[in-house]
Write the structure tokens for this entry.
Amino acid sequence: MPQAHAPRPIAVCLLSGGMDSAVCAAEAQQAGFDVRALSFRYGQRHGVELEAASRVARALRISDHRVVGVDLAALGGSALTDDIAVPRDRDLEGAGVPVTYVPARNTLFLAVALGWAESLGARDLFLGVNRVDYSGYPDCRPEFLRAFEALASLATAAGSERGVRFRVHAPLIELSKREIVLRAAELGVDLSLTHTCYAPRLERGPVQACGRCDACRLRLKGFAEAGLSDPIAYVPPENERP
Amino acid sequence: MPQAHAPRPIAVCLLSGGMDSAVCAAEAQQAGFDVRALSFRYGQRHGVELEAASRVARALRISDHRVVGVDLAALGGSALTDDIAVPRDRDLEGAGVPVTYVPARNTLFLAVALGWAESLGARDLFLGVNRVDYSGYPDCRPEFLRAFEALASLATAAGSERGVRFRVHAPLIELSKREIVLRAAELGVDLSLTHTCYAPRLERGPVQACGRCDACRLRLKGFAEAGLSDPIAYVPPENERP
């Protein structure tokens, strides 16, 4: 007699609205997890990315998508939460931590994800960090993810009382943007739903990505190298504007 | 010729409004730090503790006190954020994690403190966990604090680029409530400004502590054992009510 199907294990996946986390969530589903998605409203200057996260969650048929507000703007310190100008057209190979770095952001996001996972009885966390990120952001490196796993078991009742070992999965960690674009195509992730730009134009109808911030340029480079065209809208170059 | 005074190093201290964190902040000042205080609005059912935190910060002449909102209520799971009944009159020696446990709360609070510390150029974090807490809450144990220190250096630009080592200080970690009450007296911390109760009466004029939740009972026991009387107001016993 066949066994009843065991329920799929739950995983909490950080979902930003960008293409990396969308592909990451699809990878978690592909690996057999029942994915729950977690996004943050942390004093961003625009909510466009949260709308994108909702679209992605719906498209992936994720049953539960929560948005937790954290007013990091109260502490200042980054182009993504403050009124610091987003840099344009700069050298993507430049070393060092980007000005868009938010101090200890992934520690905070993973802490909230861990709390939710514990209350769901889950032990698996997913985030979409990749090779591009960890060249610049310290809290995207594999060593950081391993240190967070070590902390998680000590930080929770599940870990300290019942010996639950939490795992932080970063299935894209070795991938370039080109490989992420190709993987999205393989998994059927619709990248037209995602949003990447740090400085989008919102005034005239549908959102247009600037095409010039670091995030846009990395995205466009990834599509170009994959031999695919990016389905989202960009601000037209100045000489092509009406 | 005398050297100009070096500026005191900055420390970020978690300040809840309770007596432990008030004494902890005073200890940090006593140790020579320029203390900045950090509190959280995380979906508590009452803001009384934030008012207490403000009073304590003023009394200690702390130059900067920030309150960061985090809507953990969006995730559910604790008597402090949900509508679960706060237990009364229960055995304080009972083993296990209290129902007032908020999953991964200290990980989250320390992550925000770390981000603020990094933007201030500080490397010292203080929190008021003590012997009473770490018998019940996993994220108050010394092993947890050491694991967070290890994470902090990997999680930040300061740690990964400039080799800054962050320290998590818990000066009360070996103290009982009796010893904390006595230490407050020595340091001149006015405990009448603090708030401890999980289920205060707010309806009739000044706040009255219930005297029956775990937090009130531990506090009252500490004062009794120290041979001092608690200066805050409590709900009178039923047979003494008008």
User: Anything to note?
Assistant: The helical segments of chain B are 19-30, 48-59, 105-120, 131-134, 142-155, 157-162, 177-187, 214-226.
